Amino acid sequence: MRRFAALIDQLDHTGGTAAKVALLQRWLAAEPAADAAWALHCLLGKQRRRLITARRLRQICLEQAGLPEWLFDDCYAQVGDTAETIALLWRQVALQGAAPAQHSPAEAPLHGWMEEVLPGVAGLEGEAQAEAVRALWSRLDGMELLVMNKLLSGGFRIGVAQGLVLRALAGLSGQEESLLAHRLMGGFTPTPAAWAALLAAEQGDEARSSRPYPFFLASPLELPADPGTAPLAGGVHDWLIEWKWDGIRGQLIRRGGASLLWSRGQELINPAFPELIALADTLPEGTVLDGEVIVWPAGEPRPAPFAALQRRLGRRAPGPKLLAECPAVFLAYDLLEQGGQDLRPQPLRQRRAALEALQRQRPAAADAPEAGPLRLSPPLALAGWEELEALRQQARAVGAEGLMLKAAASPYLAGRRRGHWWKHKLEPYRLDAVLLYAQAGSGRRANLFTDYTFGLWDRAGGERRLVSFAKAYSGLNDREITALDRWIRSHTTERFGPVRAVEPEQVFELAFEGLQASRRHKSGIAVRFPRISRWRQDKPAGEADTLAAALALLEPRPLSGTPSGHPPAAG
Q1: What is the C-alpha separation between 284 and 289, in angstroms, rounded?
Q2: Which of 354, 363, 312 is nearest to 333 (CA)?
Q3: What pTM was computed for the model?
Q4: 403 falls in which pLDDT band (50, 70, 90)?
Q5: Cα dist. 42→93, 111, 117, 524 in Å?
Q6: Is the pLDDT of residue 560 over 60?
Q7: How far apart are CA 532 and CA 432, in angstroms?
C-alpha cells in the first residue's frame, strides 16, 4: 500500500498530462497484477463502497486526540475533507512524541489492504473497531494515512481523468484506447485475471458481451462572428439535424439472449425501466441501440418534463401507478450493432438507414410508428443554414433543449471528438435574484463561501418579501468568489449551523434550463440546472425579479399529482 500512496502523492505534485500518463504507465508496469488491478479500480473512481462512515472516523479521532469538536470543525472548514483533516490532526496532535513504528502495515501489498485489512476493520464493532483503526493510524505516514481514510470512507477521488488512465493502459498494453474503454464499460473486477484480460490482445467476439460501447459525445456549437458565414463546413444536406432531447442517454442491448439498458454513467438501469427491458426482448439478437430514455405519455405531442423522468430513476421496482403516470420510451437515434456486427465504423447516414429499416420491420411499429416504447428521433429538414436559428427556437415547443447536428459521414467514435457531432442548445432562461444565504464549499474552497441560496420577491399575503427560489454554486470566477466571501463575512445577520443569512443586498443573474411546479419547494417551483451568469452590482435588490415572473416561465404541463395552472402556494 505504501507504493500506491506514493503514487497518489506523485500524481498530486506532477504537472502536465504527458508526465502524469508516463508516471501511471511506469507504476502499473512495475506492480504485481493483483495490486495493479486494485489501483486501477481506485483510479477509475470505483472505490465508492463506504466501509466506515466519515462521521465514525471523526469520532474515533476525537476520542483519542482529546480535541474539542469545535476545533475539529474549524480545521475541517479550512481543509474541506474529513479524511484529510484526520490525517493532519492525527500526526500533529494524537501521537505527539510517539516513537516511530518499527514495522509499518503499509508494507503490505495493496490487494491485501483492499481484500483483508480494510474489510476486517469494517467488520468490527464498537471499541474493538476504534482500537483497530487507531492501531493502523499510529503506524502510517501522512499520505498513507490519508489514503487509508479515503478508502475506508468510500471517498477516494483524485484529479486523474479516466482519459489519462486509458492512455497509460494503452501505452502499457499496445491496445487501442477505444478497445480498453469498451472493456471497462459496465465495471471492472479488481483481480489478476481481469487485469490480464483487460491488457490482452483483441478477441474477435468481444462485442458479443453484455458491455455497452463507449458513448460518442457532442461538442457545443460555436457560431461564427459573421452571421452570414455558415456555422459548419459543407451544406445542410451533409448534416443530420435532430432535436436535442432532455432525457438520459442510454444504450439498449440485446445479446446472448439477455436484455440490458445501460446509462451513459455506466449504470445498468434495468430495474427502473421494465417496459424498456420488455422492448429489448423483442429486438433481434445482436442489436445495440443508442438513444435517449425519456418519459412520453401515449397520445401526447411532446415528452414530459425531465422532472417526470426523475421519478423513475433509481427505482428498483416501480409500481403500476408510477408506470402508468410516467411511461418511459427509448428514443433511438443510432444503431451501433446489428446481427452481432459492429456498425460504428460505418458512416452515420448508413447506420441511420439501417435503424429506420429495423423499425419498419417491427410488427408493433407498422401501424403506429410514433407510439409504443421504441421511437426514432425524427430528422429535421433545412433548406439552408439561414433557417437554423428559427428551427432552434422551436425546440421548447416540442419539449427539447435545442438541436443536434451530426455529420452524415461520421463514424461512431468514443468520447468527445470535435468536428463530427455538435449540440446547439437554446439560450437559458434568466432571472435576477437576491442572495439570501451562503455556505462554505468543500475541497480547495472549503474556507470560502461558495454555495449560495437566492430569492425572488413575492407579495403573498399582501406583504412584499423574498422567497427562496434556487441554489447555485457555479458561475463566478476566483476573484469574484473572494470578493463575495469577504462581503458575506461582514454582512452576516444570522447563523444556522454552517449556513449564514446575509443582508439582502446583492443581486445575481441566474441562468437555468427550465422550471417545474413542485410541492417540495417553498417557492412552489423546482429549478433545473441553476447557475450564476453574472453579478449584477449595477442593480439594487428592490429591482430583482418576482416569483410571478418565474411562474410565467413554468413548463406548460405540470407533474402528475400537481394541479394544473398555478403551482401550490409557497409554504
Answers
A1: 11
A2: 354
A3: 0.65
A4: very high
A5: 29, 11, 16, 41
A6: no
A7: 10
